[in-house]
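retry 2 of 3: previous attempt timed out while embedding NAP. Reduced batch size to 1 and resubmitted. Inputs unchanged:
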Amino acid sequence: MNIRLEGRTALVTGASRGIGEAIARRLSQTGAHILCAARSAERVREVAAEITAAGGSAAGVELDITSTNVRERIRELLEAQSIDILVNNAGITEDDLFLRMKTEAWTNVIRTNLDSAFHITQEVVKKMIRARWGRIINMSSIVGLMGNPGQTNYAASKAALIGFTKALALEIGSRNVTVNAIAPGFIETAMTDALTQEARETLEGRIALKRLGKVDDVAYAAVFLASEQAGYITGTVLNVSGGLYT
Ligand code: NAP
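retry 2 succeeded.
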């Protein structure tokens, strides 16, 4: 299967590192133009420059998805180009046991992981509907399916993204815009670097494939969902957890 997306533009949030950066790089190999967005302006420009140097097409976009002017920033981007593929990937954790969790930790996580998807998608989807073509990919987590102690805020945000995905898929399917979620398990990134060696080994023992995931494991799933070939798949959650949760 040869996935080609020439002439399409993808906005990938959280493309300054980790899973988002890998998605930006892999999507660029399909010929799509990539808007690499994150708060670290210099880093997203570097990622875009590296993609361009490798023969792809990309631009770095400084974007704080929690800022009050996020919709305005998206509208500015849409004045310059259409966005055919939206990957709502940026996300944070702010873990604590529920009884100790500060309201700020709850709010920060919900604003970053969930509210941003509402604001950005609502701006981007209008043009997709007019064009009768679009791909929306929301980065959930298996934690949103199975829960995880110390992550009530994160689990709630990731479970909510799944509900958001399914409801929106039903609303806009008739316009040929697909909406899907990816639920990664534990992937080797800055987010999982904090695990102790012991915690990591225990975790690996519980994973059917006996290893943590790599960012490319998730990136390939995103490229597939963005493809022409995935045009009959909508409202689903693609589990990329190595069998940690089935
Ligand atoms: P990461 O390495 O911590 O990267 C997070 C990305 O989000 C960075 O590019 C960061 O860029 C961006 N970001 C955070 N807050 C932002 C904001 N307010 N505005 C714009 N960008 C923001 O995380 P990751 O592991 O790659 O995770 C990516 C996604 O996958 C997240 O949604 C995460 O919940 C999900 N996920 C990860 C795992 C895992 O094991 N790693 C598992 C399941 C799901 P700046 O700091 O430059 O803004």
